[in-house]
Amino acid sequence: MKVPALSTHSKKRSGAPAAGSAKKKQKASRAALPSHVTPVRPLPPHRLVLAPMVGASELPFRLLSRKYGADLCYTPMIYSSRFVEDDAYRQAELRTAPGDAPLVAHFCGNCPATLLKAARLAEPHVCAVDLNLGCPQRVAHSGNFGSYLCATAEGRATVLSIVRTLSSHLRVPVFCKIRLLDELDETLSFVRQLRDAGCALLAVHGRYRGSPMRRRDGPAHLDQVALIKQRLSVPVVTNGNVRSGAELVDSLLLTGADGAMTAEGALDDPAIFAKAIAHAHAERSRLAAERRRAKALKAQRRDGRHLTEEEAAVVRGRKAAKATLAQIKAISSALPPPPSAAPPPPFALAEQYIGLVEEHPPPGGAAALLSHAVFHLRRLCRTPLAEFGLLADLEACKSLAACADVIRRCRAFAEGSEAFQGRRR
Fold this sequence. Notes:
This protein is α/β, with parallel strands linked by helices and about 425 residues long. Helix content is about 50%, strand content about 10%. The two termini are about 40 Å apart.
C-alpha cells in the first residue's frame, strides 16, 4: 500500500484523541510540559514496544509484531536530510498500512532545522517523532549522529537545541532514545536536560556506546535505567537484556520503567510480546497463591505446627512476594488479557511473515524484498535451518516463492513429514 503524499501543509491528524477522558488526559499532559512546548496529543500506549531497527522494523515485521501484542512500534532509522529532499525515499521509509498504528517516526541527524522539516513531513502520519541518540554504528560516527552526538558537551548542546526546536513546533510528542553516557552523573544530568527541553518519553538502552567497531559492551545496566526512572517525571522505556517474554517482564520489574522495548528478542520471536503478556498474568496468579499459602502457613506455625525448611522459607519471603505482587499487578493491569491460544512456533511465524511481505512488498523491487525476507526468515528459523543445512539455500533464493519453499522443506524435515537424507548439524 502506497503512503499518501506527504505535505508540510497537511491538516489531517491521525489518531486524534476522543472527547471526554482523553481530553482530560491531554490537558494534564500539557500542564506537565515546559512552557515553550507546543500542546501535543496524548502519548500512545508504550508498555510493550518494538524497537527501531535499521532495515528490520519495516512494515510487514511491524504488522506481525502487533498481531502478537506489541502496542507501539518504531520505524527503522530515517535519515532526516534525505527524507526532506527525496520523495521516493520518504515514501519508502514512512510506508504504512491499516493496522500499523500507533507508529513512531525514528529520525537521525544533527541539524535542528532539517530535523524539523523532516518531522513536519512525517507528523500527519505518526503518533510521535523520535530522535536517535543511541546508534553506535560506524555510520553514526562518520555522520556525527546517534550516540556520538551525545559524546561531548558541545554535541549534547546541539541535541538539546534539536529537542527544543521540535517540541516547540510540533503537535505530536517528541521522544528520545539514548544510550548511557560514560559517567552516571553525566547521564542523569543529560536526561533531566532532555526532559526540560521537551522530551515527552525517553527510551534508554542500558549500555554504553562502545566503539564504531564494537557496538556492545556486555549486558545492559538496568540498575542505571532504574535510577533514571526514579529521577524523571516523563515516561521511561527500558531497552536491553530482553530475549524472552519472561525477561521482558523482568526488565519492567527491575527498572520500574513505564515500558519495555526489544529488538533482538523480537527478531528471534515476534510473539515475544504475547509471551510477556501470558507470563505477567501467570506470575500475578503464582504470587497471589504464594501469598495465600504464606498466610496459611504462618497461622499454622502460630498454632504450634512445625514447618519444614521449604515452608519456613515461604513464610520468610512473604513480604518480598507482596512487594513483587504489587509491581506485577500494576504491569498486568496495563496489559491485554492473556492470549487464549499458545503463540505459534517459528515455522508458523515465518509463514505468516511471508504472507505479509506478499501483501505489502517493500519499495525497491526484488532486491529489497529478498534482503528483508532472507534476513527475517534466517532469524526466525535459524536453528532448524542450520540443523538441516538450509541456511545457504535460503541465502541463495532469488524470489519470495523460493524462500517460502526453503521454509516449507525445513518444516517438513523438522516435523518428519519428509525424510532428511543428509547429516544433521
